[in-house]
Fold each of these.
Amino acid sequence: MKIICIGKNYAEHAKEMNSKVPEKPIFFMKPETSLLQRNNPFFYPEFSNEIHYETEIVLKINRLGKYIEEKFAHRYFSEIGLGIDFTARDLQAECKKNGHPWEIAKAFEHSAPLSEQFINKNDLPEQINFKLDINGKIVQKGNTKDLIFSFDKLISYVSQFFTLKIGDLIFTGTPAGVGEVKIGDRLKGFIEEKLMFDFEVK
Ligand code: ZN
């Protein structure tokens, strides 16, 4: 199983990171060990002092495919979940400055909290609202109408580079409003009004 994460897929987020809106999708990967499920707590790692949340809609691939045409891409996922792409922003800044790969900043242990539950896409509106609540306050809100590259486009693009397999996950990018988490925070993620995850930072 692989986890593919899309970068800069919402214009307002690209802007807050002082980067340009990309002309084609940008992606990176996380290993299976980055998953954190069942609302288990996230233990703040000792190697970073600046862990940021990025709340993202997650697609679960349900059939094998490569070189998937955009017009057929909708057949390759039926369920939608919610995850966080935890990012060690301090390490990422150093990687960026030195032109190094991002794995230490993005792919570390439990850097991908994920909802246990996935929702059938037919039970969701075309334009999906999602949000993150920390300690009772909404800190991040998104709607998939603001995606730069649609779900179908992402699947088509990524599948040119490698075979997508059943169970692979695509984190589709974060909207604006990323920020830090602190020890003691309680994070609740919602798709529409449905609670998808609820866990603590320890
Ligand atoms: Zn992200």
Amino acid sequence: MTFILASNNQGKFREFKEILEPLGITVVPQAIAGVDFEVNETGDTFEENAYLKASTISQYTNFPAIADDSGLCVDALGGAPGVRSARFGGGKDWTDRQKYEYLLEKLAGESDRHAKFVCSICCVMPGGRVLRASGECPGTILTAPAGDGGFGYDPVFAPEGYAQSFAELGDDIKNRLSHRGRALEALRAELERSGLC
Ligand code: IMP
């Protein structure tokens, strides 16, 4: 089975591929499928945005599409940046590094470092059939960035039970513990139940 990934994020593409390929599922980035636009994330929740992206790309390509909407929810910031994680601070024009440095500035002197990554995945088939799955990964925000793996906020996030950041722990450990790894694991069960893999 082949899914078009409704994203241009290389980090997400790598993780989807690593986790879904062993299940016999091929993931094709949307640009390779001729999609030259990004779907606007106008929803208020991760679930709404994941559906918006997957349904738009499935309708446009007439192929099964898969999307995730994900983000970092920080307790001391009342759950921000949440669904706005990609647009935090200066928005889409800022680099990942500018965004996590801005987060560290906002948390300067803050003793409550609890946070969680959240991921909502949605698959939409031509004809409109929808499958959903979600996953969370609790952890803490470090006081300084560490490591050069992963993407996004990985250098400043340590998953529960670890002192190192996701960017230091490497892909294998991240995929096992992460919000996306957990959501994809739940999706696998959903695909099997539906007879799609
Ligand atoms: P969106 O799902 O395209 O709205 O983007 C979510 C944003 O959340 C990304 O651009 C990253 O900044 C952040 N994010 C989501 N998942 C991860 C992750 O696994 N590691 C680090 N940052 C992430």
